[in-house]
Design brief:
The protein has 456 residues and is an alpha/beta fold. The protein has 2 domains: 15-132 and 254-363 and 434-455, P-loop containing nucleotide triphosphate hydrolases (Rossmann fold), CATH 3.40.50; 143-251, no CATH class. It is 38% helix and 16% strand. The chain has helices at residues 5-10, 30-42, 51-54, 76-84, 113-116, 130-133, 143-153, 160-168, 178-197, 233-258, 270-276, 278-294, 302-307, 330-347, 403-410, 444-452; strands at residues 17-24, 58-64, 98-107, 118-127, 263-268, 314-319, 354-359, 366-373, 376-384, 390-393. The strands form 2 sheets. A 7-stranded mixed beta sheet has the order 2-3-4-1-5-6-7. It has a 3-stranded antiparallel beta sheet with strand order 8-9-10, with no helix packed on it. It is globular and about 70 Å long.
Length: 456
């Protein structure tokens, strides 16, 4: 009888494995992050902040066969070709769980490096939709609590008026019918899709957006209801389906995929939320607080019960698209993200787990420039737009004090008082790289150092 790989690893009879979960809130660029990270680990000329690469201890990196037979392989080669081909474009977003294994050959450091010999470390990178991550918050809420939270903040979001109008036509005596349940679920799902496209973060349930094989099933055929509608047959059935969704969809996903994660990356499009306005920023802050609380090691509750002794040792929150800003504003972007996380960090007892906030661009699509504006010059970026035209862009000046953004967001302001923040959709730039260099990036090497540097 053979010995399982987990047992082998536990006995020290096989090479160690670090499992990195990568997810992102709406439109944050997970596929680009993983593709560029792998490409830059294979060709490490741009990874000088990864100390093991800079000092020569990291001798070789290569791709291994997919370690889990039941999980699709992350299609690295196709995504890299899409990003770096003659007519580069952004790859399609994540629609399911996938995985990739990198193997690293390392030479020991210090006085006895020659005696220790080389060792191998495997990195298993697990990619999954950020929409599913947000379902963390559902597990500790019942149907009434979730409905109240959704309906309290839904007004003003794209597609919300149609959904609220549909609810207004119902009463506690409304009979249960499958066509009505499907209609409400469809209208609510359309609202979630529109909100996600507009940059809102908290769009639950996540499987409504990426249903896969569950499309049309009762577990995905419900919607939030006000208290007056929860007492009738429709409300009771929606409550049952909400509970079934948690038990049969959310819980198995976290049990099967989170139990083996050591490090977690959460990618965040902070600039997109700022452009959308104060309510989107507050929505993102709440979503990140829930994520951080759920990952807290040693935390009593449903996730700890599923995972047992939690192993998530480091969590990186990365504000993506830093290449949309001139470098003079990168520290301000990082400070804003750090402030959005601060409340959850201060509230949580991490028991040794480390968290970090960082502004990055996994694939740099712009160059820096100065553009004239009246009597002054503004620090801008220049790049290729999706239609092929070249353009210089200034997003607006982020405040040095993050509270100037976060305070009006917490107060529910409708817009920014003194500033306007824009975003531009740049296309990947055609690349000409030197041998040994991966794709250009901003701080991807620092992100890698935080995630795995201690294991190298």
């Amino acid at each position: 009888m053979g010995i399982g790989s987990d047992v082998m690893e536990g006995l020290g009879l096989s090479d160690p494995v670090v499992r990195i979960g990568v997810t992102g809130l709406s439109r944050a660029g997970k596929t680009v992050f993983i593709t560029s990270l792998v490409a830059n680990m294979l060709e490490r000329g741009r990874m000088q902040s990864l100390r093991a690469a800079a000092d020569g201890r990291l001798k070789a990196v290569w791709l291994q066969p997919q370690p889990d037979d039941t999980i699709p392989r992350f299609d690295f080669e196709r995504h890299l070709a899409t990003l770096t081909g003659p007519e580069p474009r952004w790859p399609d977003g994540t629609r399911h769980v996938s995985q990739l294994r990198l193997s690293l050959r390392l030479q020991g450091g210090g006085l006895f490096a020659g005696l220790r010999g080389a060792r191998t470390l495997h990195l298993d990178i697990v990619d999954y939709p950020g929409e599913w991550l947000l379902d963390l918050r559902l597990m500790e809420r019942d149907f009434a609590q979730w409905s109240a939270e959704v309906l309290d903040r839904v007004a003003g979001r794209p597609g919300a008026d149609r959904f609220l109008a549909a609810l207004s036509e119902l009463s506690s005596d409304t009979p249960l019918s499958e066509p009505l349940a499907q209609q409400l679920a469809d209208i609510y799902t359309a609202h979630l899709n529109a909100a996600r496209e507009a940059g809102w973060s908290d769009c639950t349930p996540g499987r409504f957006l990426i249903p896969g094989e569950l499309a049309g099933s009762p577990a995905l055929t419900f919607a939030p209801l006000p208290p007056a509608l929860q007492q009738g047959k429709l409300g009771r059935e929606f409550r049952r389906r909400f509970d079934a969704y948690k038990a049969r969809v959310v819980r198995p996903f976290f049990r099967d995929h989170f139990a083996r994660i050591d490090r977690q990356v959460v990618l965040v499009d902070v600039l997109g939320a700022i452009h959308q306005g104060p309510r989107a920023v507050e929505d993102m802050r709440r979503a990140m607080a829930d994520i951080l609380a759920a990952f807290r090691p040693g935390r009593a509750g449903w996730l700890a019960q599923i995972l047992g002794t939690q192993r998530v040792e480091r969590i990186l929150f990365a504000a993506t698209k830093a290449d949309h800003l001139h470098q003079v504003q990168h520290n301000r972007l990082t400070a804003i993200l750090s402030s959005m996380l601060r409340e959850a960090r201060d509230r949580a007892d991490f028991q040794g787990a480390r968290t970090e906030a960082m502004a990055i661009a996994a694939l740099r699509a712009t160059t820096e420039d100065m553009i004239a504006h009246g009597d002054e010059e503004l620090p801008a970026v220049r790049g290729r737009l999706l239609d092929g035209r070249q353009a210089a862009f200034y997003a607006g000046e982020l405040p040095a004090d993050p509270s100037l953004l976060l305070h009006p967001a917490r107060q529910g302001a409708d817009g920014w008082l003194d500033s306007d923040y824009a975003i531009m959709n740049f296309a990947p730039a055609p690349l000409t790289t030197r041998p040994g260099d991966g794709p250009p990036h901003i701080r991807l090497d620092r992100a890698a150092e935080f995630l795995i540097g201690d294991r190298l």
